[in-house]
Each structure stands twice: as structure tokens, then as C-alpha cells.
Amino acid sequence: MFKVLVSDPISDLGIQQLVEANDVVVEKKTGLSEDELIQIIPEYDALLVRSQTKVTDRIMEVAKNLKVIGRAGVGVDNINLEAATKRGIIVINAPDGNTITTCEHAFAMMMALARHIPQAYAKTISGTWDRKFLGVELRNKKLGVLGMGRIGSEVAKRAKVFGMDILGYDPFLTEERAEKLGIKLSSVDEIVRNADFITVHTPLTPETKHMISRPQFEVMKKGMRIVNCARGGVVDELALVEAIDQGIVAGAAFDVFEKEPPEADHPFLHNPKIIVTPHLGASTVEAQENVAIDVSEQVLHILRNEPFKNAVNMPPVAPSVMNKLTPYFGLGEKIGMLAAQLNQEAVQEIHVDYAGDLAEVDTQPLTRYIIKGVLSRHFGDDVNIVNSIHLAKARDVKVSVTQASATKGFTNLITVTLKAPNGTEHSVAGTLLNGYGARIVQIDKYPVDIAPEGHLLFISHNDKPGMVGHVGTLLGSNDVNIASMQVGRKIVGGAAIMVLTIDKAAPAEVLDHLINLPEINKAQQIFFV
Ligand SMILES: NC(=O)C1=CN([C@@H]2O[C@H](COP(=O)(O)OP(=O)(O)OC[C@H]3O[C@@H](n4cnc5c(N)ncnc54)[C@H](O)[C@@H]3O)[C@@H](O)[C@H]2O)C=CC1
Ligand SMILES: O=C(O)CCC(=O)C(=O)O
């Protein structure tokens, strides 16, 4: 039974599939301190958070069972990603579920700012009928959007409908896409100098921290307004207050703060030109359901060892590539396991060769599964697809990959070679055969045809008459039933191999007897778990 801890308020409807899963127990414990979380985290397999829980290195250090941290939202700045990767904890997020909601909040903030709605509301309910609040229209104003990702692009679309001219900047924004969106691709400097409104939609990174600060405020249009519904710190808070005092900025609307929650004496909380909300950008029924559904689904996949998407601590892969690779994950991992078990030496290099159909795609996710398979012999459950390459490199094991479209007789072929410092090599090749599934087709360059499952017995021997009979008789007399047998040799009378599928694991004494049979050099059981 997997135990899942939900440590922030997350939509009940959204996590319903987790609650209803018969292999999962969900417990909700919100508002815990770091020390309280440290006390209880060792018993959990998955942790679901929003932005309140800070998932620190100290927490992960004791989280011995933790396989996945699910962030019901976009930003993962509350999770120590480096610590998670080092420990093989997969971090996933839900990047799409709150886009529209957060865009609408940014828009609401911009409109509230333009028309002083919060200030007017506060006055009205306090009994003062004050009609001096004079606003501005959005129409014909220049809106600068910094960060044209999911949310920034949606804000730009809506602003266009309001008749605004949009200047957009994003390191990944091309002329072509800007044109498609009907916006003007601009530099940060052009935006800062010309915009009547600026809205930021970038993550907080070393590059975006204080990207709007004193030097930018100094050259801004007098009377401009600024919105931050992305991350506290993208706009320098103290420089903003100064710019308001100097009459450069007419007003600001912030949903996020450099430190959340802000201290009671934070200057934003006492400035009538600054309107604030307590990080509510993603807080709608719809968004909370969307992100919780998304993240719950992925957590279930991860706990059940099934393919998943949106891992933050692994390089992104296009869905089309992922769809193509997913059927190979199990095969790749088993090839890695088999190669590792055949190899008795220290591994210096793991070489993976992809041929045929696999030559054309980014195979990096598949390589992670293969390396996981190789390392699982020694690392057991401590290795997974997040940390497999990291673990190999940390032990000075070189991981090399080649891809070639030559089919080698198969439509797709994965060959894994383990190289030892003394020059010894072991290689295993496998393919996905249409209608037959995963097959191992070569072991140490001997052609074979084996399904990588169940109990396998690998025997290396000299090619002499009667070998098959000797082995069969010995196994039979020990009540070990043979389901299938493959014999491979390169030359008549030379070195050869036998690979047998047996119905149950062979007892250790049977392996000892096998090794003592004449002409047998090695007899070894192979495991695929
Ligand atoms: N207030 C709230 O409750 C919410 C806040 N957010 C935050 O909003 C931000 C944007 O979210 P999404 O649009 O979903 O992310 P996204 O990843 O789709 O877009 C972010 C964009 O910022 C761009 N960017 C990175 N560095 C930049 C730079 N130096 N200058 C200009 N652009 C730069 C990226 O290229 C990317 O296109 C994130 O920080 C996210 O955490 C998201 C949801 C809710
Ligand atoms: O969970 C929340 O409400 C915060 C949303 C957010 O900031 C994000 O998704 O990046």
C-alpha cells in the first residue's frame, strides 16, 4: 500500500482518483512546520503540495520512502530540486491547469489598478461616498508583457481584445510567433521605456530577479502601472516603492511577494497606490481541480512504475517523442538488468546504441531507463529514472550513446554494452517485435530469441554434443521444468551459450551442480525484478 501525504490545501475533487485507488492511502495534514514534517515524512511514498510547504533538503534527507513530490501548480521554487534529484525523488508539477485562472487574475488586477477598485470599495464600505477616484482606460494603452509563456501569452490575447498595443519580451519569443499573436516583439529596454502598463510572467531565476529595479524605473514613462502575478522578486519591491514616491509609477498590483506572507510592516501593505492579494493567482475552483487531477494522475503513474509526464527534475520531452519511446521503456530497463548481471567486473562505461526507428528521436528518456536497469543490480530501489544518469556519473561511469539508422535486420534495436577497465565487455541487444513484444536478440554477440521475463538461466559452455541433454536431465531431476531453450554459438565446437526459460527459480545447489558439469564454464540465474 502506498502512503500519500497531502500537506497543503488541495482540491478534494482533484485528488479523488488517489483517494479511490485501492493501492493508495491518502492522509491530509496541512500547516505542518519543517520539524513536524521531518517527524512524519519517512512513512510516506508521495507528497502533494501547493506553494506553502517548503520541501527542504532536511525533509528529503529523512524521507526514505519518498518517490515523488507532486506540486499542484506551476512554480516549484518551494521544492529543493537539487536535493530531490540527488536522492532520486521525482518532482512533478501541473503546468497547464492554472494558466487561464492566473491570467484572469493578472487581468483583474490590471483593471482594478486602472480603476482604483479596491481603494474605492474600502472607502465606500467605510461610509465615505468619495467620487474622486479617477481611472484610466486600457484601450490604446501600451502593455508590456515580460515572459510570453503560457500565462503571458493568454494575457496578451485578452489585452488585444481590450484594444491595447502589446509589446512582448521572452528569450524564446520569435518574430514569427509574435506576429501570430499580434504583438510587437520588443527588448526589455523598449518595454520599460514605452509601456503604460507592465505585467511580468516569468519564473524567478537569477536572471529575472529584480529585472525591474531602480535603473528600469528611472527610464519609465511617468504614470505607468505595474502588475506582478508571477513571483515575488521579479520586480524589486523597495525600488518600486521609491518609484511610486517619485511619481514615476502611478500604481502597482501585486499577488506575490519576495517573502510570503509579508511582514506586517511591509511597505506595500501601507501604500494606497499599491493593491495586493495573498498569492491568489491560481485560486479558482476550476484551476485547483485541474492541477490536483493532473498531479494525482501523475503520482499514481509514478507509484505504479508507469510512464508519466511533467517531471521537473528531468529534461522536457515532446509528447510525440514520449509516445514513441514509452513502449521501449520496459525493454530498455530489462536489457540493462541483463547486461549488468552478465557482467562480473567493475563497469567503466555504459554504451547504448540505438538503431533503426530509434535513430531519429531524442532517446534521452529511454537511456535513463536503461541506466536504471544496469545500476539496479547494485543500487536496488535507490536508483530511478531521475537519478540514474547522475548516479552513474557520480561514480565515474561514462555513459555514451550512438544512434544509427542502419536497421541491422530489425526495425528497431537497442544494444547495451558494459565495458570494464580491463577491456572485458558484455553486450545485450533487444528489440520490440510487432506482435511479439519485447525480445532479447543477442547476448555477447550470440544470436538468441528470448522474452525478457520470468526465470532465466544463462549458461556458457563449450559446444560439444550432449550438452543440452546433460542440462535438461539435471534440471528435470531437480524438479525444474524448462519452458524454452535457446542455444547460440558462433563457430562449431567453439564457445557457446544456452539461455533457458524455467518455470521457477532454480535452487542454488542446482546451479552448483550445473557449474560442475563437464564443459560448462558458467551457470547463472537472471532476474528481471
Ligand atoms: N500567482 C500565482 O498564483 C501563479 C503564479 N504563477 C507563476 O507565473 C509564472 C509564469 O507561469 P507560466 O506562464 O505558466 O510559465 P511558462 O514557463 O509557460 O512561462 C514563463 C516564461 O518566462 C520566460 N522567461 C524566462 N526568463 C525570462 C527573462 N529573463 N525575461 C523574459 N522572459 C523570461 C520563459 O521563456 C517562459 O516563456 C511562473 O513564475 C509561475 O510560477 C503561475 C501560476 C499561478
Ligand atoms: O498553489 C498556488 O496557489 C500557487 C500557484 C502558483 O504560484 C504556481 O502554480 O506557480
From TrEMBL:
Keywords per UniProt: Amino-acid biosynthesis, NAD, Oxidoreductase, Serine biosynthesis
Question: Pfam families, per this entry?
Answer: 2-Hacid_dh, 2-Hacid_dh_C, ACT, PGDH_inter
The ACT domain covers 456-529
CDD domains, alphabetized: ACT_3PGDH-xct (cd04902), PGDH_4 (cd12173)
Pathway linked to the protein: Amino-acid biosynthesis; L-serine biosynthesis; L-serine from 3-phospho-D-glycerate: step 1/3
Q: What is its EC number?
A: 1.1.1.95
Spell out the reaction equation it catalyses: (2R)-3-phosphoglycerate + NAD(+) = 3-phosphooxypyruvate + NADH + H(+); (R)-2-hydroxyglutarate + NAD(+) = 2-oxoglutarate + NADH + H(+)
Q: Does the keyword NAD apply?
A: yes
Gene3D superfamilies named among the record's database cross-references: 3.30.70.260, D-3-phosphoglycerate dehydrogenase, domain 3, NAD(P)-binding Rossmann-like Domain
InterPro entries for the chain: ACT-like_dom_sf (IPR045865), ACT_dom (IPR002912), ASB_dom_sf (IPR029009), D-2-hydroxyacid_DH (IPR050857), D-isomer_2_OHA_DH_cat_dom (IPR006139), D-isomer_DH_CS (IPR029753), D-isomer_DH_CS1 (IPR029752), D-isomer_DH_NAD-bd (IPR006140)
Indicate yes or no for the key word ATP-binding. no
The domain of life is Bacteria
List, alphabetically, the PANTHER family matched.
D-ISOMER SPECIFIC 2-HYDROXYACID DEHYDROGENASE FAMILY PROTEIN (AFU_ORTHOLOGUE AFUA_6G10090) (PTHR42789)
State what this protein does.
Answer: Catalyzes the reversible oxidation of 3-phospho-D-glycerate to 3-phosphonooxypyruvate, the first step of the phosphorylated L-serine biosynthesis pathway. Also catalyzes the reversible oxidation of 2-hydroxyglutarate to 2-oxoglutarate.
The entry's family comment says: Belongs to the D-isomer specific 2-hydroxyacid dehydrogenase family.
Q: What is this protein called?
A: D-3-phosphoglycerate dehydrogenase
Organism whose genome encodes this protein: Paenibacillus aceti
